[in-house]
């Protein structure tokens, strides 16, 4: 689960992180009061969407010469003008895709006198099984570009969970960022509190780009991107309250209500599979035969008829779906339950696209019989390779 920048900063501020004063607004009418509540005279008006690259983004409705999604204002009046122009319009960035995202929230923040921009993040390092810091002197840039062109400027530092961030870890991070004196002392404290926030809140990513040094030597969290482990949200009702459903795919929202592992993709073949590994293999073989999957959907090992029905409805609700592949290998999951769920869903919403069903495993004979006697126009398959070829052929006419 992702949250907005202003929410992330408020959360980190609760741990003691140095952040600027700022006010979130939801309408242009709130902009003047928000700006006047800040010290000024420099204000930063930031679009709040779940995507990076906002500053370089473009508002599709405002023409090619329009400013991006992060703008400086040197007066209250200019901040208000920016707010009126940005709210309600669609911002397209490198991470949104061509469709972009509508800006429904802005964050008006007090400006900063920047001396240096640095990069700092925490993530789960799968290779070491630890939370790791990633630090670079090249702040304000895409870290992927830095990794490609100047990888020597990136430090990855795994943290021992038994000790947390030690003084030696903090010294190493400060040194890699070329910090000294007052800035280094402040940053070392920030490193420790960021790690504490990451672990206590079950984050999966905490990215600060840039982490800045101001001309007076103080350090500040100038931007913050935070993602949480969805599997741990039951422990954090305060975090769940920060969820912005307008930033999420409607199908993914519906899937979460049924505890389905669903991710919308850009293809045209809908997939309903049990088990993450089999789902990945199914998507791979669809691509192998020249088509693209429309989703990742794992119904899990113990899905009920109702859950399977919900999953099928979610797939068919996607207008991009031109064919559906149901691929079930029943261990814990029973093939007859899958069959009953598919039939119930088809009877409820109809079937206007080709459907290929491959069943194997527990109660497979019963499942196939249910499908065969349903009267549905279903294409049966013997194995995964056969199923993939048939659904691609059916979609391609």
Q: In words, what does this structure look like?
A:
- With 397 residues, the chain is α+β, with helices and mostly antiparallel strands.
- The protein contains 13 helices and 19 strands.
- Strands 8, 9, 10, 11, 12 and 13 form a six-stranded antiparallel sheet that branches. It has a four-stranded antiparallel sheet with strand order 1-7-2-4. A four-stranded parallel sheet has the order 15-17-18-19, sandwiched between helices.
- The longest helix has 20 residues, at 181-200.
- It starts with a helix and ends with a helix.
The fraction of residues assigned to DSSP E strands is: 15-25%
CATH topology of the largest domain: Rossmann fold
Number of strands: 19
Summarize the biggest pleated sheet: 6 strands, antiparallel
Distance between the termini: 39 Å
Mean pLDDT: 91
State the helical fraction.
25-40%
Query: Total helix count?
Result: 13
Keywords:
3 domains, 397 residues, Rossmann fold, alpha+beta, four-stranded antiparallel beta sheet, Dna Ligase, domain 1, D-amino Acid Aminotransferase, Chain A, domain 1
Structure in a nutshell:
This protein has helices at 5-13, 31-36, 76-86, 143-149, 167-176, 181-200, 237-240, 250-257, 276-288, 305-316, 335-349, 364-372, 384-395, and strands spanning 22-25, 43-47, 58-59, 70-73, 90-92, 101-102, 106-110, 114-125, 130-136, 154-158, 203-214, 219-221, 225-228, 261-264, 269-273, 295-298, 323-330, 355-361, 378-380. With 397 residues, it is of the alpha+beta class. Helix 5 (167-176) packs across helix 6 (181-200), helix 10 crosses helix 11 (335-349) and helix 11 packs parallel to helix 12 (364-372).
């Amino acid at each position: 689960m992702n949250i907005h920048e202003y929410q992330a900063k408020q959360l980190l501020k609760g741990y003691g992180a140095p952040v600027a004063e700022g006010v979130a607004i939801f309408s242009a009418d709130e902009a003047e009061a928000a700006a006047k509540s800040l010290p000024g005279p420099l204000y930063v008006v930031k679009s709040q969407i779940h995507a990076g690259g906002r500053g370089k983004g473009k508002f599709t409705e405002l023409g090619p010469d329009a400013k991006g999604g992060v703008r400086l204002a040197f007066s209250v009046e200019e901040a208000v003008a920016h707010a009126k122009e940005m709210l309600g319009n669609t911002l397209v960035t490198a991470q949104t895709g061509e469709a972009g995202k509508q800006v429904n929230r802005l964050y008006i923040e007090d400006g900063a006198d920047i001396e240096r921009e640095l990069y700092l993040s925490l993530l789960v390092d799968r290779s070491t099984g630890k939370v790791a810091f990633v630090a670079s002197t090249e702040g304000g840039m895409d870290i992927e570009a830095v990794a490609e062109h100047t990888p020597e400027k990136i430090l990855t530092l795994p943290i021992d969970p038994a000790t947390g961030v030690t003084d030696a870890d903090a010294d190493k991070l400060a040194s890699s960022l070329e910090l000294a004196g007052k800035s280094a002392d402040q940053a070392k404290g920030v490193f420790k509190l960021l790690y504490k926030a990451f672990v206590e809140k079950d984050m999966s990513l905490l990215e600060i780009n840039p982490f800045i040094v101001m001309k007076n030597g103080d350090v500040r969290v100038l931007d913050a991107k935070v993602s949480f482990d969805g599997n741990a949200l039951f422990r954090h009702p305060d975090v769940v309250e920060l969820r912005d459903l307008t930033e999420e795919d409607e199908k993914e929202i519906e899937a979460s209500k049924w505890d389905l592992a669903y991710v919308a993709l850009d293809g045209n073949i809908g997939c309903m599979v049990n088990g993450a590994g089999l789902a990945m293999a199914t998507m791979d073989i669809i691509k192998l035969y020249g088509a693209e999957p429309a989703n990742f959907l794992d119904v899990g090992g113990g899905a009920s008829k109702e859950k399977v029905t919900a999953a099928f409805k979610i797939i068919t609700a996607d207008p991009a779906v031109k064919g559906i592949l149901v691929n079930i290998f029943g261990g814990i999951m029973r093939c007859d339950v899958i069959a009953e769920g598919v039939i119930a869903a088809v009877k409820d919403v109809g079937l206007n696209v080709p459907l290929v069903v491959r069943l194997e495993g527990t109660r497979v004979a019963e499942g196939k019989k249910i499908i065969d006697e349903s009267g549905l126009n279903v294409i049966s398959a013997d194995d995964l390779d056969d199923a993939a070829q048939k659904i691609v052929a059916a979609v391609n006419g």
